[in-house]
Design a protein that fits this description.
The chain has about 325 residues and is mainly α. It is built from 14 helices and 5 strands. Bound molecules: adenosine-5'-diphosphate (ADP) and tryptophan.
């Protein structure tokens, strides 16, 4: 059976972008693939979080994963820092990565611009750590959003290079995976490109109904359709993207027609979107609350997940050491 692995940095609560971009794909995959999900707490060190935040955030995110429908019986969930084998592979892989190519990664350049006083080596080698996360399980498929394509290309490069240097066919080249065949980009409600924590334009899975309605009703719009069958400007197309993701095809067709014959009222459109987002979010939010209060269960899930992940990584590392020449 093919192996799937993916993770998210625990730098904040999950939002609709994370859910539709990555987590929902995980959930659909767990039946068909040997799946492992993890919480990338080492990766979050690249932006220097406080110790108390690290401790708290793993459990918070774990409850959110479970609430989204990841079933630890089928898809073990572990915390990255519980599997030390990753570090050894990270070191080995780093020996084959070059400064120039790491410096050219867009996410590195962006982070370097955003935090000019903290352009640390961890930020530079972020793609190597991500490659180690994936290659330690010899995973073939990785469900992530579109913004991770370059990191995935680096992971494939790590695999290819290792195989080439040692003349082996050991690591498969991991592929980005989108369950619905193409990457989903959940837009922001402020008219800007994407929903993201650092953009401050998120609907969180923990938001209550009132907050969701308020956020949706405040979404940026324009004067309304002026000529029949015209193309939609980006801010309006973004609202239709929400219809496509969260609503029924009938609702989409209804509002599309209203747009085309210039009778669309944005207030009605927003109400529909808000209610349909609530239909997705409300049950997840209730489950987050239920899981969050069961700390023993959360700790057990993480402990059992770590056991499975360690066993999988240890088997890979044993081979890797032998291939490199260590006994
Ligand atoms: P953020 O951008 O809020 O910091 P992360 O970078 O932690 O989110 O992303 C975690 C996962 O969620 C990644 O797989 C990423 O591709 C996906 N993701 C984040 N925002 C979106 C979005 N707006 N649309 C689609 N996928 C997204
Ligand atoms: N870089 C990913 C993100 O920002 C998180 C991540 C770390 C990851 N290691 C990974 C995702 C391995 C998939 C596989 O969202």
């Amino acid at each position: 059976m093919e192996k799937v692995v993916s993770g998210i940095r625990p730098t904040g609560n999950l939002h609709l972008g994370n859910y539709f971009g990555a987590v929902k794909s995980f959930v659909k995959m767990q039946d068909e693939y040997e799946s492992l999900f993890f919480i990338a707490d080492w990766h979050s060190l690249t932006t220097s979080p406080k110790p108390e935040d690290i401790q708290r955030s793993a459990r918070v995110i774990l409850a959110e994963y479970l609430a989204c429908g990841i079933d630890p019986e089928r898809a073990p969930i572990y915390v990255q820092s519980d599997v030390k084998e990753t570090l050894e592979l990270y070191l080995f892989l780093n020996m084959n990565m070059y400064l120039g190519e790491l410096e050219r990664v867009t996410t590195f350049k962006e982070k370097a611009r955003k935090q000019p006083d903290n352009v640390n080596a961890g930020l530079l080698t972020y793609p190597t750590l991500m490659a180690a996360d994936i290659l330690q399980h010899r995973a073939q498929k990785v469900p992530v959003g579109k913004d991770q394509e370059q990191n995935m290309e680096m992971a494939r490069r790590c695999a290819r290079r290792f195989n080439h240097i040692y003349g082996v066919d050991f690591f498969p080249e991991p592929q980005n995976f989108y369950f619905n065949a193409e990457a989903v980009k959940v837009p922001g409600l402020d008219g800007s490109g994407k929903m993201g924590k650092s953009e401050g334009n998120c609907i969180y899975l923990r938001d209550d109904d009132k907050t969701i309605r308020r956020k949706v009703m405040r979404a940026v719009t324009d004067l309304g359709p002026q000529t029949p069958n015209s193309e939609r400007p980006e801010v309006i197309e973004n609202l239709f993207t929400f219809l496509r993701i969260c609503s029924t095809p009938d609702a989409y067709a209804y509002f599309d027609e209203k747009w085309n014959d210039c009778s669309l009222r944005y207030g009605d459109l927003k109400k529909q979107i808000a209610e349909d987002i609530i239909k997705t979010v409300a049950p997840i939010r209730e489950r987050i609350e239920a899981f969050s209060s069961d700390v023993d269960f959360l700790d057990r899930v993480a402990r059992q997940g770590a056991e499975v992940a360690r066993e999988s990584a240890a088997a890979t590392l044993k081979e890797v050491r032998r291939i490199i020449g260590f006994r």
